[in-house]
Amino acid sequence: MSPNINSNKMFFYFILIFSTLITISSNSWLGCWIGLEINLLSFIPLISKHKNLLSSEAALKYFLTQAIASINFLFSILIKMILLKNFEINNFIAIMINSSMLMKMGSAPFHFWFPNIIEGLSWFNCFILMTWQKISPMIILSYYMNNNFLMMIMILNAIIGILGGINQTSLRKLMAFSSINNLGWMLATLMISENLWMFYLILYSFLISILCFTFNLLNTYFINQLFIFNMNSMIKISLLINFMSLGGLPPFLGFFPKWITINFLIMNNFYFISFIFVMMSLIMLFFYIRIIYSSIMFNYLKLKWFKFYMKNNSMSLINFFSMISLLGMIISTFFFM
Known about the structure:
Its EC number is 7.1.1.2. It catalyses: a ubiquinone + NADH + 5 H(+)(in) = a ubiquinol + NAD(+) + 4 H(+)(out). Belongs to the complex I subunit 2 family. One of its GO terms (biological process) is mitochondrial electron transport, NADH to ubiquinone. The protein is mainly alpha-helical. The protein has one domain (about 5-335). It has helices at about 5-25, 30-45, 55-80, 90-105, 115-120, 125-130, 135-145, 145-165, 170-190, 195-220, 235-245, 255-265, 270-295, 310-335. The longest helix has 30 residues, at about 55-80.
């Protein structure tokens, strides 16, 4: 999954990490805004490539959507500073700030840019956009949230993430809608506790990284590429384990944070949200199983010019992480008994 590293890319990756740290450690709204802008300007050179029109288009779309969200955020904090004594307008300001952060994350109903942009990125940049780029907006969201508004957004995320993913043939778009669905869970964890949100994000990042790493090694971007006859059967089993884990099926590792989240939601009497989350997870598991079932049962005869090579150390790494994904829930249960 590692890109071709050069000094320019290393510089921008450093700025990307540094800008997130600026945002989450800032003690003023303006400092948060500056961190978000640095983050935007460091990510655009990483996703744009001169010889690839799709990535250039993705960079332009990303810039425009993030700029609109930043303007909205700046406008909101300026109104908040000017009308600080007027408490009646606080609810409106909270919704404005929340909306701009949700747009930055690619959350429903501001998600329209997210799958289109991911379609033009490499797997490594997809991984960054689905995980690291969500940290800053989430932290800002936790400072000033409107609970009723966020509950509605959580349900929308869970439903739209499923509806968008059902008829997808592109793996990147499928991962994007899966990310939108998981964003609903993350918002729920953020409302409960920041520690629980961090735990969910770390485990989700781990599961997404395995899949992105595998797809990058296989140079796979569409579902029908998983049907190839001479693909190693261990890779297909590994994909089965990781898809099931990402869907939240017990006893895989991905079930663990979802189990804790549902437990907390039920303890706080959010029965309807818990029901929606569980039902949507079942539908998500259905189309993950459909992909894996097809890839195992269907076989395209290989063409003579098609050669499929994979380094042994890469394969063993995938198998090792898949084993963690498979046994993680069992091990963690012993820890928490």
